[in-house]
């Protein structure tokens, strides 16, 4: 039997009364409040934002959403998928197989996975997309990937009481279930592999963001250097977008150093594609002049690069299944805050 997890319901228990109170509080008409909450285009953006913030402050949820929540009628689980600006799909191969595993388990529980694209930089309010999802009662629970060190999305979900599972660790959100990949151990293994091959000028490419995974990846790199008696050099650390273009920019920066690195480790296989391109332009041979290990997910393209890319792999379908299992347990009333760290397996090829 499914257990609903109530969000704040309308004031006085009635949609009309709640919206009337909200309109009076703001000094505007009921119709304007209704249009603002329904994201109608004929409402001034500043007015819409005032209404949304006031509704959130007093715990107002439109009556139709409240009915759906009490009956558990949506039967949808959302995944908030961040999409970068431009044409490059951020993490697409990883997520497509993750979706497959998640839906397999959700279907058995009579739920459906709903992919909810988000462009964090599209508005000044980083929670705008999430607020709309909650206010319109579009899903019964959420999966949030790409967690930040301090992540206001997790704090907001914990505050309103919507069940969620995070794909990644964070210092936000209080006690909650999460699964993360062992980025720290992967970086340590990759860096130690370079060192065993005789490299001492080892560079690393990490995301230009506050993603929590970045901290762990860098920590593993530093730990391997320290274990080998090598000093950490900030000049060998470069940040960029998690895309081929980001990898290209990282390689450009690192290879201008003197002496330039003889090995480059990056967190994403897409970034490695950009590194390959820059090496070729500079007349350097990947796997011979510069060794490369790239990515914590073995995508279909990695073995078709020349030379084939050494990287890490995991079963993303199984990961998706486990995320769904944790979320269904949460929807069923479990208060357990399970945290799981998934190991990554090195795939040895020719690039390093």
Q: Would you mind describing this structure in some detail?
A:
This protein has 352 residues and is α/β, with parallel strands linked by helices. Among the domains are: 1-73, Orthogonal Bundle (434 Repressor (Amino-terminal Domain)), CATH 1.10.260; 183-313, 3-Layer(aba) Sandwich (Rossmann fold). The protein has helices spanning 15-26, 30-37, 45-58, 63-71, 92-108, 128-135, 152-160, 183-196, 212-227, 244-254, 269-281, 316-331, and strands at residues 76-82, 112-118, 141-145, 164-167, 178-181, 202-207, 237-240, 263-266, 291-294, 311-313, 339-342, 345-347. The strands form 3 sheets. Strands 2-1-3-4-5-11 form a 6-stranded parallel β-sheet, sandwiched between helices. Strands 7-6-8-9 form a 4-stranded parallel β-sheet, with helices on both faces. Strands 10-12 form a two-stranded antiparallel ribbon. β8, α11 (269-281) and β9 (291-294) form a beta-alpha-beta unit. α1 crosses α3, α5 crosses α12 (316-331) and α8 runs parallel beside α9. The longest helix is centred in the N-terminal third of the chain and has 17 residues, at 92-108. The protein is elongated and about 70 Å long. The protein starts with 14 loop residues before the first helix and ends in a 5-residue tail after the last strand. Mean pLDDT is 86; it is low at 1-16 and 64-72.
């Amino acid at each position: 039997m499914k257990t609903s997890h109530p969000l704040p319901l309308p004031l006085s228990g009635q949609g009309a009364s709640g919206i009337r109170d909200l309109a009076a509080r703001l000094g505007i008409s009921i119709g304007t409040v209704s249009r603002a909450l329904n994201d109608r285009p004929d409402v001034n953006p500043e007015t819409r934002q005032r209404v949304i913030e006031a509704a959130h402050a007093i715990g107002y949820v439109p009556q139709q959403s409240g009915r759906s929540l009490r009956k558990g009628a949506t039967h949808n689980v959302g995944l908030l998928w961040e999409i970068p600006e431009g044409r490059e799909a951020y993490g697409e191969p990883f997520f497509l197989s993750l979706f497959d595993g998640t839906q397999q388990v959700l279907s058995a529980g009579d739920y459906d996975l709903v992919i909810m694209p988000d462009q964090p930089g599209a508005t000044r309010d980083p929670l705008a997309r999430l607020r709309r999802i909650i206010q319109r009662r579009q899903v019964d629970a959420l999966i949030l990937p790409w967690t930040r060190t301090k992540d206001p999305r997790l704090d907001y979900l914990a505050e309103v009481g919507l069940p969620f599972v995070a794909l990644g660790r964070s210092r936000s959100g209080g006690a909650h279930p999460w699964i993360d990949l062992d980025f720290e151990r992967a970086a340590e293994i990759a860096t130690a592999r370079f060192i065993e091959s005789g490299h001492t000028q080892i560079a690393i490419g990490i995301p230009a963001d506050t993603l929590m995974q970045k901290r762990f990846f860098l920590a593993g790199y530093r730990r391997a250097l320290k274990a080998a008696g090598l000093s950490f050099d900030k000049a060998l650390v470069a940040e960029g977008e998690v895309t081929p273009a980001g990898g290209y920019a990282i390689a450009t920066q690192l290879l201008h150093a003197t002496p330039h690195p003889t090995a480059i480790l990056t967190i994403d296989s897409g970034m490695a594609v950009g590194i390959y391109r820059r090496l070729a332009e500079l007349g350097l041979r990947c796997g011979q002049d510069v060794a490369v290990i790239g990515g914590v997910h073995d995508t279909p393209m990695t073995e078709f690069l020349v030379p084939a890319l050494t990287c890490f792999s995991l079963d993303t379908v199984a990961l998706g299944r486990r995320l769904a299992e944790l979320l269904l347990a949460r929807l069923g009333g479990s208060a357990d805050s399970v945290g799981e760290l998934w190991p990554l397996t090195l795939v040895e090829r020719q690039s390093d």
